């Protein structure tokens, strides 16, 4: 068994697609109309056959409440690994990304947290 798709709730799929591709650098893998929403998945440019990230609309009241609560509590919705967190932090700052936690060493890892502008906090980690 392996993870093939994981999802993240987003307030606006088009805005999320733009942020995750143009700002973060992910690659769109699937974009299929599904009624008033779309099945949009992204992959890492380095692993285009790897795990997909689904941009899931938060249209369901339970999804919206969950997303808003973890955001308010400062809990990242997901985590992305990077090879050089200082370099990635600088690159994203230059693109206007707002960080809620600057790169911080915690034990054997360094983490940083940013706002994805779509209702989520995202954690970066360098192992």
UniProtKB/TrEMBL annotation:
<dbReference type="InterPro" id="IPR037523">
    <property type="entry name" value="VOC_core"/>
</dbReference>
<protein>
    <submittedName>
        <fullName>VOC family protein</fullName>
    </submittedName>
</protein>
<dbReference type="InterPro" id="IPR004360">
    <property type="entry name" value="Glyas_Fos-R_dOase_dom"/>
</dbReference>
<dbReference type="Pfam" id="PF00903">
    <property type="entry name" value="Glyoxalase"/>
</dbReference>
<dbReference type="InterPro" id="IPR029068">
    <property type="entry name" value="Glyas_Bleomycin-R_OHBP_Dase"/>
</dbReference>
<feature type="domain" description="VOC">
    <location>
        <begin position="2"/>
        <end position="127"/>
    </location>
</feature>
């Amino acid at each position: 068994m392996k993870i093939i798709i994981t999802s993240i709730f987003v307030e606006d799929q088009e805005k999320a697609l733009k942020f995750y591709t143009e700002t973060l650098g992910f690659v769109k893998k699937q974009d299929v109309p599904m009624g008033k929403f779309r099945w949009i998945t992204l992959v890492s440019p380095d692993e285009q056959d790897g795990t997909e990230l689904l941009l899931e609309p938060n249209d369901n009241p339970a999804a919206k409440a969950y997303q808003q609560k973890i955001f308010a509590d400062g809990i990242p919705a997901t985590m992305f690994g990077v090879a050089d967190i200082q370099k990635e932090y600088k690159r994203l700052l230059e693109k206007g990304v707002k960080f809620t936690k600057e790169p911080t060493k915690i034990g054997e890892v360094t983490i940083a947290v940013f706002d994805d502008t779509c209702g989520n906090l995202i954690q970066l980690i360098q192992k």
